[in-house]
Specification:
This protein has 15 helices and 16 strands. It is an alpha/beta fold.
C-alpha cells in the first residue's frame, strides 16, 4: 500500500521532463501515458514529444503518406507535441524537427524510449547540445528473427545504439531479459536499472460486468480471455488449439480474443477448421483503456501464450482485476507472474501445458480465485505507477544533481 509519506517523496523536487516516444495514443493507456500522467500528478512539468502517425501496433492497417503538421494537445495534466513525420518505415517514424523541438524547450532532463528509434537518437543529440542528462528506457530483448531485418538492426546497433547507450546518464530496462540483452551488447551492468511498466491499480480493479460476459461467451461455461495483437509473437494459435483439447474435458468453455493484427484472418480460419467458431469470440474493435476493467472482470481466466513478450502489461491489468493468469515462461511474464501463487507459467508453444493449467483452474475455482486476489496484491505492491515512478525520479534527481 502507498502511504502519504511514500507519495510525498515523489515531490522532493519539481522536475521539467521531456519524454520522447515514437508513437503515442491515450486510447490504450500505453507505458509513456502512465509515466507522464503519474509524474505530472505529483507536481512535475511533463511534455511528451511524439510523431503524428498512428501506432501500427494498434492500427496495423494505418496508411499515412502525408508529412502532416505539428500540433499540440493538453492531455489531462501533461502536454503532448505531435511532430511532422517524413516517413514511417519498419515502425520507426522519422521526425526531422525533433532536434529543434527539444533544443527550443526548457527542460531539465530528456527521457527517450528504445535505442533503435531515430527519435531516440535525435533526442539524445539534442540533450547533448543542450547539456541536459539523457535517460534511456529499453524493453527489447532480442533482435528480429528475419535475416534482413536482423542484419539491419545489428548494424544500426553497432553505430547509433551504441552511441546512445554510451552517452546516456542511465538506462532502465523493463525486465531482466532486457538488461541481459543490453549487457550482451557491451553496456556495463551497473548502468542498467530494471524498472517495470506500471499500471493504475485504482482504475484497474474488479467491477460488475455480467452483461459484457454475455456478449463475449456463446455458451454458459467458463470464459477464457486474452488481450493481444494478432501477431506471430503472441502464440495465439497454440491457445486456440489448446482450447479444442480442453473442451474435451470441459464442455462449454469459451475464449474471447481481444485485439487486431495481421494474423486475424489466419486465426479466424484456424478457429473454423477446428470446429470452434461458436466457442471463440474475436473482438477486433478498439476498446478504450477505461472500459477494459469491465472486460477483465467479465472473464474467469486470463491467458497470454506469447512466444516472445518484452513485458506484458495486459497481465498486470488482468491481475489487478483479480483474474488468475496463465502466461508463457518468457522475459516480462517471468517477472510479473508468481508461478503457483498468482497463476501459472508454461513453456512457450506448449499446448499440453496450456490444457493442463486451464483445466486445473476450472476444476479448482476456489484456489483460482485466491490466485486472482494474490495477483492484485502483487500488482499493488510492485507495479502500481506510484511505486514505479519513484524509481524513475531517483534516477532523474541523481542525473540533475550530478
Amino acid at each position: 500500500m502507498n502511504t502519504s509519506a511514500d507519495l510525498e517523496s515523489l515531490r522532493v523536487c519539481n522536475v521539467k521532463i521531456t519524454v520522447v516516444a515514437p508513437y503515442f495514443t491515450a486510447l490504450y493507456g500505453q507505458n509513456e501515458y502512465g509515466l507522464c500522467r503519474t509524474l505530472a500528478a505529483h507536481g512535475h512539468e511533463v511534455t511528451l514529444i511524439t510523431s503524428n502517425r498512428r501506432m501500427k501496433k494498434f492500427y496495423f492497417d494505418s496508411r499515412q503518406w502525408r508529412i502532416g503538421r505539428k500540433r499540440r494537445a493538453r492531455l489531462e495534466n501533461f502536454d503532448v507535441v505531435y511532430l511532422p513525420t517524413l516517413l514511417d518505415a519498419m515502425e520507426q517514424p522519422l521526425m526531422p524537427t525533433m532536434l529543434a523541438e527539444i533544443l527550443g524547450k526548457d527542460c531539465e532532463i530528456v527521457h527517450g524510449h528504445e535505442d533503435f528509434q531515430s527519435s531516440t537518437f535525435l533526442s539524445y543529440a539534442a540533450s547533448r547540445l543542450r547539456r541536459r542528462p539523457f535517460v534511456l528506457s529499453e524493453e527489447r530483448y532480442y533482435f528480429p528473427s528475419a535475416l534482413g531485418a536482423r542484419l539491419l538492426y545489428k548494424s544500426y546497433a553497432r553505430l547509433f545504439c551504441k552511441l546512445v547507450q554510451t552517452g546516456a546518464y542511465a538506462i532502465t530496462a523493463h525486465s531482466n531479459a532486457a538488461k541481459r540483452f543490453l549487457v550482451a551488447q557491451g553496456v556495463p551492468p551497473e548502468k542498467v536499472t530494471v524498472i517495470p511498466v506500471g499500471i493504475d491499480t485504482g482504475k484497474f480493479k474488479k467491477v460488475d460486468g455480467p452483461g459484457l460476459r454475455n456478449s463475449f461467451a456463446t455458451e454458459p461455461g467458463p470464459l477464457l480471455l486474452t488481450v493481444a495483437r494478432l501477431h506471430p509473437n503472441k502464440g495465439l494459435e497454440y491457445l486456440i488449439r489448446a482450447l479444442r483439447k480442453a473442451r474435451a474435458e470441459i464442455p462449454g468453455i469459451n475464449l474471447a480474443i481481444v485485439g487486431r493484427g495481421p494474423l486475424e484472418k489466419k486465426l479466424r480460419d484456424l478457429t473454423i477448421s477446428l470446429g470452434l467458431k461458436e466457442a471463440i469470440h474475436f473482438v477486433s474493435t478498439g476498446i478504450p483503456n477505461e472500459k477494459m476493467p469491465a472486460v477483465y472482470s467479465a472473464s474467469d481466466i486470463f491467458v497470454l501464450p506469447s512466444v516472445k513478450e518484452p513485458f506484458g502489461r495486459v497481465l498486470l491489468e488482468a491481475m489487478s482485476c483479480e483474474l488468475p493468469v496463465i502466461a508463457a515462461r518468457v522475459a516480462g511474464p517471468l517477472e510479473i507472474v508468481a508461478d503457483g501463487q498468482t497463476g501459472f507459467l508454461v513453456e512457450p508453444r506448449s499446448e499440453e501445458e496450456l490444457v493442463e493449467k486451464i483445466t486445473w483452474m476450472v476444476q479448482h475455482r476456489i484456489h483460482a480465485k485466491d490466485m486472482g486476489r494474490n495477483g492484485r496484491e502483487r500488482v499493488k505492491r510492485y507495479f502500481d505507477w506510484n511505486i514505479v515512478v519513484k524509481e524513475y525520479l531517483k534516477i532523474y534527481e541523481s542525473a540533475i544533481r550530478r
